[in-house]
Specification:
single chain; 4 helices; globular; P-loop_NTPase
C-alpha cells in the first residue's frame, strides 16, 4: 500500500528524533542532537562540522523535532530548551504520558495542539492525518 500524501512528507527535509530518556542531564535540544545523533553517526574529527551543518539546516529548511518521552525526562525545566533555534522552519512533536500534563509548569500557551491517543487501529492513516494537520493550520484535526 502506498502512502497517499507524499507532498506533506516532502515539506520536511529533516527529522530529528530525540529520546528524552537518554538526555537526563541535558536541557537544550541542540545538545541532545549532538549526543544522540552527531556523536553516534560521525567520527570525532567530523563532529564540529556536522554540528554546524545541523545549525544551518535549522535556519534554512523545514524540519521536524520529535521529543519522545517527556514523562521520562527529569529536567529542571518543564520542556527542553529551543532557545536560539529559529522556529520559522520547525515543528516540535513531544510525546508524554497524560499525567505529565498535570505539571502546573506546563502552560497552555506553550502547547499549540494537544491530542490524547487511546489506541490506533491504522497507524499509516493516523500518521497521514497528523502530518496533514501539522502542516495545514486551517485543517482541524477533529475533521481530518
Amino acid at each position: 500500500m502506498m502512502f497517499g500524501d507524499v507532498d506533506t512528507l516532502q515539506k520536511f527535509r529533516f527529522l530529528f528524533f530525540i529520546s528524552l530518556r537518554d538526555s537526563r542531564e541535558q536541557t537544550h535540544v541542540t545538545q541532545m542532537i549532538k549526543t544522540q545523533l552527531i556523536y553516534k553517526i560521525y567520527a570525532e574529527d567530523e563532529w564540529e562540522s556536522a554540528y554546524k551543518l545541523v545549525l544551518k539546516i535549522m535556519k534554512n529548511v523545514m524540519y521536524l523535532v520529535v521529543q519522545d518521552g517527556l514523562d521520562e525526562w527529569p529536567g529542571e525545566e518543564v520542556l527542553p530548551s529551543m532557545d536560539g533555534i529559529p522556529k520559522d522552519h520547525c515543528i516540535v512533536l513531544t510525546t508524554t504520558r497524560p499525567w505529565k500534563l498535570a505539571d502546573e509548569r506546563i502552560r497552555n500557551s506553550r502547547i499549540d495542539i494537544l491530542f490524547d491517543l487511546e489506541g490506533i487501529s491504522d497507524p499509516k492513516e493516523f500518521n497521514e492525518k497528523i502530518l496533514r494537520c501539522l502542516l495545514d493550520e486551517s485543517n482541524d484535526i477533529k475533521k481530518a
